[in-house]
Amino acid sequence: MPRPDPDKALGSLFGLAVCEALAGSNPGDVSEDAPLTPGLWGDGTAMALSLAESLIENRGMDQRDQMVRYTSWLRYGYLSSTETCDFIDETVKQAILRFERTWNPLDESLTKGDACLARVAPVVVYFSSTREDMLAAVAGATMTTHSDPQSLDACRLLAAMMFDALHGAGKGNVLRPALPDNLCPEIADLCTKVSMAAQSPAGLSLQAAMIAFQDSTSFAEGSLRCLPHGPRALAAYGQLAGAWYGEKNIPQIWRHSLARHNVLEQMGNQLLRD
Predict the structure, then answer these.
(1) C-alpha triplet 210, 196, 113: angle, nearest 5°
(2) 105 with 62: CB under 8 angstroms?
(3) Residues near 102 by beta carbon (within 8 Å), at least 6 away in sequence
(4) How many beta carbons lie within 10 A of that of residue 179, not counting itself?
(5) How far apart are CA 193 and CA 207, in angstroms?
(6) Alpha-carbon distance 37 to 52, whole Å?
(7) 94-110 residues labelled b (16+ CB within 10 A) or e (exposed)
(8) Which 8-state DSSP code applies to residue 28?
(9) Which positions ≥6 away from 101 have C-beta within 8 Å?
(10) Contact status, residue 111 vs residue 145, Cβ threshold 8 Å
(11) pLDDT, tens digit, for every residue of 164-220?
(12) Contact criterion met (CB below 8 Å) for 160 and 153
C-alpha cells in the first residue's frame, strides 16, 4: 500500500498536540480564531514523540528502547513541551518505575487505563504501508504500559480507523473499519452501537472521540465537542481527526501557538522518510 499523504500524517501528530494543548487551556477562552494559551502539549504528546524517535532510530519496534526514552522524559523532561515532566499519568509512572527496577519493558499486571490512546499516531504513520504489521506494532507499543484487553483493543481500533483515514477513506468507512482480529466485545461494539455506553476508561475515551468526529464537520468543531470529555478523549480525537482532515485543516493559529511546534514537524517528516 502506498505511503499516506504527508499532510494527513503530520495532521495526526499536530492534531494530538493541539488537542492536548486545548485540554490545558481555559475553556472560556478557547476559539478557533484565537491562539491556544499557553500552547503546551501534554504527557501523551511527549510519549508519542519519544516513541516516534525510537521507531526512527531503531528502524522499527524495540520495546526496551521505548521504555528507556519514556524514562528520560520522566526524569529529565525529554521531548516535553516545557523540557520538564510537569504531569504523568499514574499508570504510566508505575510502568516506568517497574522498568527501572526490573529492566522488563512489558506490563504483566493487566493495567487498565486510557493514557495509552495518546501515542498511537507514530506507530500508524511508521507502519502505514502494511495494516497487519501496523496493528501488531500498536499492540506491542501499548503493552509496555497497559496490557488490559480493553486498553489494548481500544488502541488497536483507534489505529485501524487512523490507518483508513491516512489512506483517504470516507468518514463513515473510517468509523466502521475492518475490525482487527479478536477485539473484545465492548470495543468492537463502538463501531456498531455507538449509543451504548462503554465501561472501561479507554473505551469511554475512545467512544467520546468517535462521537465528536462523527458529529462534526471540521477539526475545530469536533475538538470543541470533545473538550468536556477530558484530555484522553481529546488525544484520541486529535490523532483520528488530524489524520482525516490533514494538518492544513487544523486552525493555523492553533498550530502556530504550540510550543516547540517545529519538533512535531521534524519528527513527522522523519517518520515518513523511514
Answers:
(1) 60
(2) no
(3) none
(4) 15
(5) 10
(6) 26
(7) ebbebbeeeeebbbeee
(8) G
(9) none
(10) yes
(11) 999 999 999 999 999 888 999 999 999 986 566 788 999 999 999 999 999 999 999
(12) no
Of the CATH numbers 3.30.43.10, 3.30.1340.30, 1.10.4080.10, 1.20.120.1200, which one belongs to the domain with range 6-273?
A: 1.10.4080.10
3-state helix vs strand vs coil in the chain, percent to 5: 65, 0, 35
Chunked into runs of 10 residues, the chain (274 residues) has average pLDDT values of 86 97 83 90 96 97 98 95 91 97 97 97 95 96 98 97 96 93 92 77 96 97 95 98 98 94 91 81
Domain-by-domain residue ranges, the chain?
6-273
Report the predicted TM-score, pTM, of the whole model to 2 decimal places: 0.96
Cα 79 from Cα 135, distance rounded (Å): 25
Name the one residue in this structure whose C-alpha cell is 505511503. 3
Cell numbers given for 37: 494559551
DSSP tag of 2: P
Cα separations (Å) of 208 from 130, 146, 198, 202, 234? Answer: 28, 20, 10, 10, 8
